[in-house]
Amino acid sequence: MSSTLSTLRKLPHKLRQLSRSLYLLAADPRQLGSNSRRLWRAWRTGGSQMLKHQLLSLGHPDAPTVPVAPTDAWQDYQQRLSSEVLPVLRAEIAALKQPVSISILVPTYNTDPAMLTAMVDSVRAQIYPHWELCIADDASPKPHVRQMLQELAAQEPRIKLHLGESNHGVSHASNRALALATSPFVVLLDHDDLLQPQAIYRVAQSVMADDPDMLYSDEVLVSPDGKEVLQYFHRPAFSPEYLRSHPYIVHMAGFRTALLRSLGGFDETLGISQDYDLILRVSEAASRIVHLPEILYQWRTHTGSAGHDKMAQVMSTSTAVLQRHLDRSGVAARSAPGVSFNFFETQHQIADGQRVAIIIPTKNYGSLVRQCVDSIRATVQHAAYDLIVIDHASTEQASLDYFAQLEQEGTATVLRYQGPFNFSAINNWAVRQLTRPYSHYLFCNNDIEALESGWLEHMLSQCQDPSVGMVGAQLLYPDRTSIQHAGVCVGAFGIAEHYGKFLKLPPDRVDIAFMGRLVSTHEVSAVTAACLLMRKETFDAIDGYDEKLAVGFGDVDLCLRTLQLGWRVLYCPQATLVHHESITRGKAEGYDPHPEDSALFASRWRDFLDQGDPYFHPAFEVRHTCWLVRTPLHCEASINRRLFSRSGLGQRMQRLSYSASVSVPLPQAAAAAGTQPSA
């Protein structure tokens, strides 16, 4: 009887939610088809529970189409946090000798009374007591706001107020809050959101240990009443290219106070996208950026927010903001809207002097090579390239006849290779035979098929950046609707696996997946050599492939050694090709086809594997390829902060390390290019 009454009491709330979701479904006819497909995929994936979460997410343009952990997982996490983690952190706080103060900046305007109270309560409930709450009201016309703020400040001496007399916008109010701050580090909090109880302590931990210029955390998107979880936003380590493709850093963000003031704070000419502009400007100047891989922020969504009402303005303003960032950074490129809301493309022009050697090893399978070569010739129009086919002792007459035809036509150079199969040795040998000067090498399997014009131009335009060592493509299975490769997660399934593998795409092939990972150019730890574009300079500096890895993981090792010298590795979704995977050498199921290679790779990169891929998140299931949040949710007293630092040696030297002290060099090329790394 009690359960029935409880259900009846919840019925009006559920009906309101359903009504709101159906309204949002029909509100934009242009999105009706894609939203309907999202709902169908949610039903197929997770039944009624997932359908409910997907319906709720329609009100938020950033909500992705992959499954989220159910709401009860979040409730369980909160209980474990309170009982298991917070007592440990409170003991750490009590033992601090010289705690640092943190300022929390909040602009307010006509804030709902309940939300304002809840926001302030979440700050006062922080287990770390060394904070100040700097609130600047932008002349709210509703009288309750000023009155409530004055009452709250009277109750709490750590609250500082600026009460504006005239309205100037959120950027102005945020700068007024910044002017109130007396702490060396500030964090941003929206007037209608909530902090997790450990949030400010996690910031203070990083400030004291890492000395960051900027930091950011993960967050959870919840319904206005906070009872429904719409999405968990688990972010990677700092990724400059990802930030240019999508403002993936939202909440919670924090900054060194002196740096923020030196940059002039928020741009008061911006009434929207001001946070994105600020983060881009800080990222240009910051030497140390820290990611806190923990949910520290509850983002309460509601349909009245500016992001929902002004999507077109958000896109135009953010595109302009991004263009100014590119100009300041000296990047000769144009910012343009991407394939979905809040996604962007950086369109580079290919500089003079770029030429690519496309290296295609094969043994027989002339029909596959013909398909590969013909598709490249049909789709590459504006990039200079030469085709180099490596004939590894072919015996099929039809294949030999085709290779002879290529030579007679002058379509490709055919080189003959003898010896046992060793993928690394074959590619290294091929590079040594080249006599023409090349800026880049494209390592290409014989079972690759290009689909659309411009794919190589996209990859080359990214890889001409001196900070980029290699670029990988998006690869599809032969059905052309399933992802085969969207970058490589090092450590997945024990050693390495492709992101997005087996994920089915909708008919228009546009699916942003988790936080846009399928449609955003971004840094990854590795890409597959089935279609990998690499700078000659980088290849020479790391001495090419390691021939001790004859078959397995030679490409992943190649990528990690590239990272070790400081170059970036990018995944480029604008280059989409078909990979007719395993037609050539067969597909091994249920066993490791190259255990010696696997053992050598695991031994060489043990520290990296133990620490975890910085572009993967500890909250994800490591035996899943599509960013599945594991349950029960990750909840530990100790977190592995990911520190990105830029050396004073120049733009090309950047490193990423962990709070656990193991150093993993990442993005951008070596300060001393040509130095042989020790693996």
From TrEMBL:
Recorded hits in SUPFAM superfamilies, A to Z, give: Nucleotide-diphospho-sugar transferases (SSF53448)
The record, for InterPro entries, names: Glyco_trans_2-like (IPR001173), Nucleotide-diphossugar_trans (IPR029044)
Name all Glycosyltransferase 2-like domain ranges.
Answer: 103-226
Give a single Pfam family match. Answer: Glyco_tranf_2_3
Give the protein name, as stated in the record: Glycosyltransferase family 2 protein
